[in-house]
What does this fold into?
Amino acid sequence: MEQKRSIPTLVESTLNSVDGLTRATPGPFFYTRVMARMDAEEKNLWEKATAFITRPIVIAVVICCILLLNVTAMFQQTELSSEVASEQAAGTLVDQYKIASTSFYDYTNAEP
It folds into this structure.
């Protein structure tokens, strides 16, 4: 029974301990010191490359180049396939009118 009475007092004491808290604030000139330290650091090659590649204009140029290459490959593929189709059509026409010829290299096994 006494535990039930002590629980509300413990809750009250816990809530009262939070009453005196204030918001944490950084020391004076904290922001300027952090910015000065960040500017003082020398950027390495990877940071410079990443900063260049992630620019929106660079990304747009790369996407345009990829699309241009895809369109060029598509047009070349259609030209090649039409040439192959015309050659095949000409080949089938020749095969239809081809006269069977005998070859002298067809040997028969004549056994004595």
